[in-house]
Design brief:
The protein has helices at residues 24-44, 64-102, 108-133. It is mainly alpha-helical and 134 residues long. It comes from Streptomyces pseudovenezuelae.
Length: 134
């Protein structure tokens, strides 16, 4: 009989200590070095058929018949996003006014922050994508 332990635990060994987790930095270094080596191995692989080993670089210009249609769709989406942002600000403002009049407290500022964040994303989507992919 082991003193100091409850009766139900006397016949069972104490739980094993948890093993320390491996260092996350070690696994990140291992994965990045593995990806580096694999990318160099794939880049040095011979091309089937004995062709040129250079990676093709297609032109960045879209077909002319598609450009006008895509610009129209993107313009409509930008207009709809702006209209939704304005509607969201108006609705949030109306809800804030109604809550103040009733004496209720609510988290309208977080809603307003979400709406304004969405407006910022809609207004900067085009320039942001142009910056990243140009």
């Amino acid at each position: 009989m082991t003193p100091g332990r409850p009766h139900a635990l006397r016949n069972h060994p104490p739980p094993a200590r948890p093993q320390p987790l491996p260092d996350a930095n070690f696994s990140e270094i291992t994965m990045s070095s593995l990806l580096f080596e694999v990318s160099h191995l794939l880049a040095a692989a011979p091309v089937p058929g004995g062709g040129d080993t250079a990676v093709p670089s297609p032109a960045a210009n879209a077909p002319t018949e598609l450009t006008g249609k895509v610009n129209t769709v993107l313009g409509i989406a930008a207009w709809a996003g702006t209209a939704a942002g304005v509607a969201g600000v108006l609705i949030t403002g109306a809800m804030m006014a109604i809550s103040v009049k009733r004496g209720e407290s609510s988290e309208h500022m977080s809603r307003l922050g979400m709406v304004l964040g969405g407006c910022v994303l809609v207004s900067t989507a085009g320039p942001l994508i142009s910056f990243v992919f140009a």
